[in-house]
Design a protein that fits this description.
One of its GO terms (molecular function) is porin activity. With 317 residues, the protein is mostly beta strands. The protein is built from two helices and 17 strands. Strands 1-3-4-5-6-7-8-9-10-11-12-13-14-15-16-17 form a 16-stranded antiparallel β-barrel. Strand 16 and strand 17 form a beta hairpin.
């Protein structure tokens, strides 16, 4: 056998051995977020931070997601994701926390997921929250940003730029012994990638002891991104109730992203009394995976207030 024929045989053997690996690589994806933040908080009234100067890894995480074809037009889909808390010395005994973890099926009839997942009420926020997973997160003052175990999620196939989805929980083991549901309809693109607008309406009843309705509108205009939020909420016992309003604005200039977010809530579901939170920040975007930022968030309660400032670096992989 000539040298060229031997080389061809070796190439064919190597190609055959590599084919399953290539196919397997297309079935799943490892991903995560690594973030480091240095923050100073005056009083520690703000959620997600403590009084004084802290070095944190806010909501850093790792996960794997993918799908496997069971039959033509029928796929098994899954996600397993955990928050990594072990960066801080105090968290070395419990370095992980549960995030979205589910298993389901996907077909021309839609997607059905079972496990721990963001409620579709939370999902409705889209890209409104410019300070997501920081001290300025809308969950600081607005109820309904819940991730719940023992849930069933159903997503209807998208139709004329409209997506309808539902969450049902027979019971929430952590907080309630009753069933609950959430339903959301979104017109446009909640990620503002394929379309420059999104309108979402959502209702939740019983999940995490909450009954609430909300509407969120988002729009991109040239270098501007603007979002508006309205919410009416009460607890199941109807001992607390009120409204929430919010606005977020971001401007893009080359790699710079100055942004502003204002939230007002009167329901007392997250803090005692009416609450106002505003946050200002500046992101520097290196690319789609990495950005640095500085931010300030102020929480105003009826009898007190708190301010947190932070500088951070975030990497998505």
């Amino acid at each position: 056998m000539t040298t060229s024929k031997i080389a061809k045989v070796h190439w064919l053997i190597a190609s055959t051995l590599m084919m399953p690996m290539v196919g397997l690589a297309q079935e799943y994806q490892f991903y995560g977020k690594a973030e480091i933040q240095i923050a100073h908080t005056d009083k520690g009234l703000l959620r997600y931070t403590e009084m004084g100067t802290q070095i944190d890894a806010p909501f850093s995480r790792i996960g794997v997601k993918g799908k496997h074809q069971l039959k033509p037009q029928l796929n098994l889909v899954y996600k397993y994701e955990v928050q990594v808390k072990g960066f801080e010395q105090d968290d070395t005994n419990n370095p992980f926390a549960a995030r979205n973890t589910y298993l389901g099926v996907q077909s021309y009839l839609g997607t059905l997921l079972v496990g721990r997942n963001d409620t579709r009420f939370k999902y409705s926020e889209g890209k409104f929250d410019l300070f997501n997973e920081t001290q300025g997160d809308i969950a600081q003052v607005i109820a309904g940003q819940d991730r719940i175990g023992d849930t069933i999620t159903y997503v209807v196939p998208k139709w004329y730029n409209t997506e309808i989805s539902m969450t049902y929980a027979p019971k929430d083991d952590a907080n309630s012994q009753q069933s609950g549901y959430a339903i959301t309809a979104i017109y446009g693109d909640r990620s503002l990638q394929t379309l420059p607008y999104s309108v979402a309406v959502s209702h939740v009843d019983g999940l995490n002891n909450l009954v609430a309705s909300r509407a969120i509108g988002m729009m991109k205009m040239q270098n501007w991104q603007i979002g508006l939020l309205w919410q009416e909420a009460k607890n199941v016992a109807e001992t607390k109730s009120g409204h929430a309003f919010g606005m977020s604005v971001q401007f893009q200039h080359d790699a710079w992203r100055p942004k502003l977010q204002w939230l007002r809530d009167t329901s007392e579901l997250r803090h005692q009394g009416s609450t106002t939170n505003y946050s200002v920040g500046l992101d520097y975007v290196f690319d789609k995976s990495a950005n640095a930022y500085i931010m300030l968030s102020r929480l105003s309660l009826e009898n007190s207030s708190d301010v947190s400032t932070a500088v951070g670096l975030k990497y998505l992989f």
